[in-house]
Amino acid sequence: AGSEEEFVKEYKDAYYARKFGLAPDDVEGHLNLRQKYVEGIVWCFSYYYNGCISWGWFFNYHHTPFVSDLMGCEDMEISFDLGKPFLPFQQLLGVLPIASRKLLPEPYADLMDRPSSKLNQAGFYPLEFEVDMEFKQNDWEGVALIPFIDANLLVHEHDKVRDACEATLPAVDKQRNTHGGQRIFTFDASAVDTVPSPVASLPDLTHCQTRCDGYSWPDFPMEQGGRFMPTLCEGVLTGDKAMAGFPSLFSRKIQCEQRVCSVNVFGRPSHKETIVIALAPREEGVATTAAHAAHLVGKSYYVGWPYLRECQIKAVSDRLCRITHREGQVKTTNHSPEQADKWMRDSRIEREVCMTKRGLEVGEVHVMLEVVVLSGMVRNARGELKKVFEGETLRYPLQLASQLPTQEDARHSEKKAAEALEEEFPVGSEVVVMQKPLTGTTAVVVGHPEGGKMVEVEMVLTPKVRLEQDFFGQRVVQGTVEWMSTQQLSMAIKVPPFLISKMGSTVRCKGGADIGLNIKFEKKGFCMVGYARKGEDNNWEYSKEAFELFRDYKVKFPHVFSGIQRCKDAREIDPKELLPGVDDAEKYLGEVTDFLRKHPYARLPLAPFSAQSCSVSSVSEIEKLSDEYVKMKATAVRVTKRSCMPPSALHIPVVGVDSEATSSAGNVSVGDRLVCAVNFGAVPFGTRGTAVAVEDDKLDVLWDTKILGGSTMGGRCSEFRGYRVKAGSVINISPKHKARPPQQQQQQQGWAG
Asked: At 346, is the secondary structure helix, strand, or coil?
């Protein structure tokens, strides 16, 4: 014990000397560090629970003390001076690096790099600085050892500039450097404003359903200290009375103990003791065999304690049998000896997973549940809200299951259709028309005629624009004949087929260089969007862009192609054997990897084999036609029309609820025209776009207009035009899908290199 204490003391002394320059006998220095650290904890708690208690306080150290050295902190005297907040330009001068000086008006930015500036002379804006990476693995974890700002000096120099340029600084910059009033932002479904972008690099925020109002703090009762006191809102339930999804350890009897159990949460198993939660044995009467739990099959239940999720139980099983529910009947299938052994192995695995992933001891598993969890709510054509259970089947030990929680989540309650259409389709609501020939048209509810049995909507139409002009995406995809087989591609660039297969994947050289194109990965089940895909015969096919990539690679680096033919059986290729006629093989390989790394294709994402995707050229053509279509609609004659429709012909968005009108996984193909059917998220309700990639229930969509938060989809489209959404958030307005066009045997002739 004595040697361990000595080791800890020596370790701490070395740490404080290395990080703070503190000697072991510097009592005042150690006390100041601990005082500041505890002040920081108090400041943070006060800031988040009661508001800022000091505008000028900061932790003037780069590192922290050991928690074991904070003993006695309860005797510290802690107080703060409220002060006042920085002006915006003062704040920016205190936090911006010199590379961001352009965000300040030039007179203020000049303080950062002018040689005579006292802020520059004080070293506030170093061009180079040390980053402490001790005990760190990633760059972002490092501690930047930059000097702390002298607030008094900063304010003094700022004020000198402000006074000197009072007459010359533009009014907009003067306004920027003032404290604004308080604002409260509120969701408002009736708002359809466009908020202009403050900078040229971002698009306008269209269809903004937000209201901005001034706000004044209320007068808080003196019994609350005259200030805001954080409390739970009235009606919030906690503990064992909480709704499903809100974790609670109080809904079950548990025991806690410390043990070494190798819990792996962050990628590495723990090596020391961990606090383990052990479920107490269930009361008598709880099912211990599948037969006792058979009544659960086909019913809704909750699984995954303590994070309960509603599910539908598809089957229960034990080591003897498996009980399922099909077509209203319960079916029992007895296990063979091999199946019984497998069940026992699987039950042990489930118990071990609970321990190693969650630190949860569930005890011996006697019964397993096979469930499908609640995926959301759907509004059917009759206006009813129904629960939807879909997705992969999951297994849970019966110990982690529970009946209905005390409080059901109102968001997941099934509801009958609204008795009055005024409730379901309020006046002013935006809807999407689902009735031909206006499918996909957005409209606004204006009334409920015929005794409230119909919904009257108002639409803005462009009758001169033909309906079929909206389906350019399908025409592009159906007219595409640019996918080639491995044999066709090898003939086009005049190399053996095996070389296409090898070069299309990873090709490792000794020393670590990868000279493969990495556009397909057979074992991993992935390929590069728009470059390679699995054909209907499960063989590889390549796009026009892939052909051009292979061709350019071969033209620029012919020695690589000829070398790989000689070393085709090597797992790792020796650069000398690969490039026997090249004087500087290392430099040549560097040029190869640089070419591959900087090529535009390197930014494109990988997708599973099952995914559909347009080629890059097809996406470009779709975007061109989309721009033409939008321009044509914008300049066409507009007609405002009112029409009475049955509620089944309209889709109204409800937050958190899907509709039978929206698309489902597998119901969208590349080239299909889509309409955003939800009124939340980045894409405004009613915006149209074209599906350019389909991956399970996720869609890469090229939208007709810029989307705030959108992207180029790896360089496939213009900035802000691409955005990924779920299939359930859009309505497919395209005609029925047509089969993929047959491959043309002569297509390689037009691509010959």
From this structure: helix
